[in-house]
């Protein structure tokens, strides 16, 4: 198990605490929005564009941010800027566990021509100390259901809070590696890489990314998402300029590498 600083572990614990639907000490710092009584109704799909659905919790929902500042909206901006004719659907609900995500999966994937599922769930399971086997079973069922519909999956790894002991933490982390290997899906080891633990990149609760932090999260996701979109675009992106012209243009901006990720809500 790689070494962790005390500050990072403390941030991980706070991250997990904020994911709870029930009362927690963290709620005295920043009120967590109540979970919706019912999932939102699927809006009619009239765009005809291929979809990327982001199924997650408060980090995906964009806690404390405007809708256009959450990382799914920033992914949409990147797609638009690069000329992709794709649409991102934010299916994040604060407080969701892997079981809750599985329960609303049919709604999440009923958004038209869904080609990619970004799966960002599990931190709330870790907060509650739920059996790792159950979380793995739920995440596996979501991946299998997506594959049955010929939907590619990008799996965002999470981390458990350290208060359940190192064995639980290591086993929890390994679930995402094992699922990625078993189902041959793309793995982003940690969604909050380069953001967690950095006060300048988080809101006042020290837990949720601020505007700048959300940009970094979007960059990390885009780094692994873009190759998936390219492979599935089917001509939906304008052709690249001729090679000799492209060589004379500006060098592309480098994207951050995907590292192993700790917690998400």
Keywords summarizing the entry:
10 helices; 265 residues; disordered C terminus; globular; 5 strands; five-stranded parallel β-sheet; disordered N terminus; alpha/beta; Rossmann fold
Compose a concise summary of this entry.
The chain is α/β, with parallel strands linked by helices. 40% of the residues lie in helices and 10% in strands.
Radius of gyration: 18 Å
Number of domains: 1
Order of helices and strands: HEHHEHHEHHEHEHH
Largest sheet: 5 strands, parallel
- How many extended strands? 5
State mean pLDDT (0 to 100 scale).
79
Descriptive account of the structure:
The chain has helices spanning 6-18, 58-61, 71-81, 98-103, 105-108, 123-128, 132-148, 166-183, 211-232, 243-248, and strands spanning 51-56, 87-92, 114-120, 152-156, 186-188. It is an alpha/beta fold. The chain has a single domain (47-235), classed as Rossmann fold (3-Layer(aba) Sandwich). The radius of gyration is 18 Å and the shape is globular. The two termini are 22 Å apart.
